Each structure stands twice: as structure tokens, then as C-alpha cells.
Amino acid sequence: MKRALQICAVILLAMAAVGLASAQGDPFVGTWKLDVAKSKFDPGPAPMSQSRTWEASGKVSVEGVSASGKPVAYAYTVKSDSQEYPVTGAIANGADKVSTKKIDSNTVQANFTRAGKHVETATFTASMGGKVLTIHAVGMTPDGKPFENMAVWSKQ
């Protein structure tokens, strides 16, 4: 019985270590701050500020202040299974669902939809050192106008 408990303890410790190493190895996990000066929003205007928290579970939460000075908050889930997950809060493109796929260890592509219609493709690229996140987003606003944004984020 004592031997079985030791084996279970070793297995549990190994699983915890693998989970921790996996989370630390994911370059997207962490808190990011938008570098407005290095970013480009076409047609604009850029938000005043934003921060993004990317959890090891894949949950992404964004909070900030819009160009008009209003608070902004939304969240979605990034999983590499191409399944659709809900978007909560007021995302600028009006999306209500997102599906994502991992392109490589430092690149994720997300497709946002609104009422079943594609509204945005965003490519998330983490730098090799894991200090910079670039999001290239192309799509349509809720009123049907095209946009193309290149947002640069710094890891905090």
C-alpha cells in the first residue's frame, strides 16, 4: 500500500510539472499591453489603451478604453481545435463566435463570426523571445466597412 501511494505521488508530481512546463512554454500566456504608438488601425481611430490577459486554459480577456473614451471589455476562448466558441462582451467587430487553429508554436489564426457570417480573420504572432505579440486583423465592421489593423502588444 505504501508503495502504491509513492507511485501515485510521483505520477501526480510529474503531471503537475508537465502542466506547468506546458503553460510556461506557451508564448501567448501572460498579460499584454497594447503599444498604441507602434500599432496601426485602418481606418482608425486607435483605442486609447488596452490590456490582454491570455490564460493557459486558452481564455483571452481584453479590457481597455476606446478611442471615444468609453470602457471596453470582451473575452473569448482560443483552442486549437477549429471549433466555435462564444465571444462575450462588446468586441469592435460585433463578433459573437470565434474559432481558432494553431499554425505553429508562435502563430494562431482566429476567425470571428457574427450571426454565422465571417467578419474577421486575425493572426496572432508571438515573437521568438515571447516579449512581443503582433495581431494582424482584417475584416468588416458591423456597419459593413472594411478594416485592417496591426496591433503590437508588449508582455508585462
CATH topology: Lipocalin
Q: What is the CATH architecture descriptor?
A: Beta Barrel
Tell me the helix content: 10-25%
| Number of domain modules | 1
What fraction of residues sit in β-strands?
over 45%
Distance between the termini: 47 Å
Can you count the beta strands?
12
Largest sheet: 12 strands, antiparallel
Q: Provide a count of the helices.
A: 1
Order of helices and strands: HEEEEEEEEEEEE
Shape: globular
Poorly predicted runs of 5 or more residues: 16-23
Round the Cα radius of gyration to an integer and report it. Answer: 18 Å
Within CATH, the superfamily carries the name Calycin beta-barrel core domain
CATH class wording: Mainly Beta
Overall mean pLDDT stands at 89
